[in-house]
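ARCHIVE CARD
CATEGORY: sequence design from structure
SOURCE FIELD: tokenized fold
FIELD CONTENT:
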């Protein structure tokens, strides 16, 4: 057992690997807050989270001013207690997305430290359900991409062994969305999974009509068809639509997931460790979903989520969107469409420290030490 003596904060800004557009926004950058925790034995854990272009500076101030100083002197193995104490410390003013993103960077660092001290990879320490999980790709399905390119990317992914492809929907008319999905199904046949994602772009009436228009194509799911806080709308749509409803990337609390699951508003759970507050609450959501016989298919962060999907019994897919290549020494190991969880102790991300130093934003480099 060892107490935390040092917390180092930093942030890097990563440009998207490709142009990324959906029904409501563009992914302009990945602001990546990072937390490095050192304990009294000299063990080090590194964690991170992300934004899609706004809010990074607010996350860093919350970490520096309110959360990271509270870690000094804490027992590093008491991950559950630390998570709840930090959440409570901010509950009166900043609970929500900013808090969850900040908590995620701390919590993943604590899990990295815990796994390294135990000499185990995350997927084993967190449950050890299986060593690999199937991938589907989103990177070739953005809303601006023309139909021939959508089909070409999906055919190439299938050739590599990928299980499915996600296509963004939310064009001005149903006919445009239908044309995109019909071309995919015609080219790929009935066995390849096609996921769709509306990114909260529809009103309730539009969502029902769009789901009905897409009924013939045997979709794996329709993702975020409505605003994330419209639980009643998702309940109604889940009852009316033939395809599964997927939610999760825009939910920031275990309790939000509990409401969706209990009311039957979603049948695919896309909990995101970077947005739910880290690995600690991610596992709670995954196990809660298992109790309702629901699969977990997390959003984004494939380099981290591969280990979590492999940790739990109901982990189904890893979403392929590469983003950390420029700041890591090794990428995600994918073979015949299967993403393999890293076997190295820790969360399994081999950071390139020279690249991190070169890309770090100076104003956010903060070092908090015991007795400093």
């Amino acid at each position: 057992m060892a107490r935390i003596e040092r917390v180092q904060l930093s942030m890097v800004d990563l440009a998207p690997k490709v142009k990324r557009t959906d029904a409501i926004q563009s992914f302009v950058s990945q602001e990546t807050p990072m937390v490095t925790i050192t304990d009294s034995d000299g063990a080090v854990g590194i964690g991170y989270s992300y934004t899609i272009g706004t809010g990074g500076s607010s996350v860093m101030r919350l970490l520096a001013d309110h959360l990271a100083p509270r870690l000094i002197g804490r027992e590093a193995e008491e991950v559950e207690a630390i998570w709840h104490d930090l959440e409570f410390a901010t509950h009166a003013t900043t609970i929500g997305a900013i808090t969850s993103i900040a908590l995620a960077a701390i919590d993943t660092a604590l899990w990295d430290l815990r796994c390294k001290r135990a000499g185990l990879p995350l997927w084993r320490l967190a449950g050890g359900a299986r060593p690999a999980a199937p991938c589907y790709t989103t990177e070739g399905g953005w809303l601006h991409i023309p139909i021939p390119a959508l089909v070409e990317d999906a055919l190439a992914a299938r050739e590599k062994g990928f299980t499915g492809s996600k296509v963004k929907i939310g064009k001005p008319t149903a006919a445009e969305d239908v044309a995109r999905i019909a071309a995919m199904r015609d080219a790929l046949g009935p066995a390849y999974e096609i996921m769709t994602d509306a990114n909260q772009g529809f009103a309730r009436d539009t969502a029902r009509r769009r789901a009905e228009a897409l009924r013939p194509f045997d979709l794996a799911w329709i993702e975020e068809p409505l605003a994330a806080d419209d639980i009643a709308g998702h309940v109604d749509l889940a009852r009316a639509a033939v395809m599964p409803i997927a939610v999760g990337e825009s939910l920031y609390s275990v309790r939000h997931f509990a409401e969706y699951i209990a009311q039957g508003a979603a049948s695919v759970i896309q909990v995101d460790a970077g947005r739910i507050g880290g690995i600690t609450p991610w596992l709670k959501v995954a196990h809660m979903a298992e109790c309702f016989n629901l699969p977990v298919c997390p959003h984004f962060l494939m380099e981290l989520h591969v280990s979590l999907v492999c940790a739990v019994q109901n982990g189904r897919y890893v979403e392929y969107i590469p983003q950390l290549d420029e700041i890591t020494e090794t990428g995600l190991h994918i073979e015949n469409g299967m993403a393999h969880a890293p076997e190295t102790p820790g969360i399994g991300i081999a950071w390139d420290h020279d690249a991190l130093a070169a890309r770090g934003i100076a104003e956010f480099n903060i070092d908090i030490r015991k007795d400093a």
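CARD ANNOTATION: The mean pLDDT is 96. Residues 97-118 form the longest helix (22 residues).
SHELF: design records, drawer C
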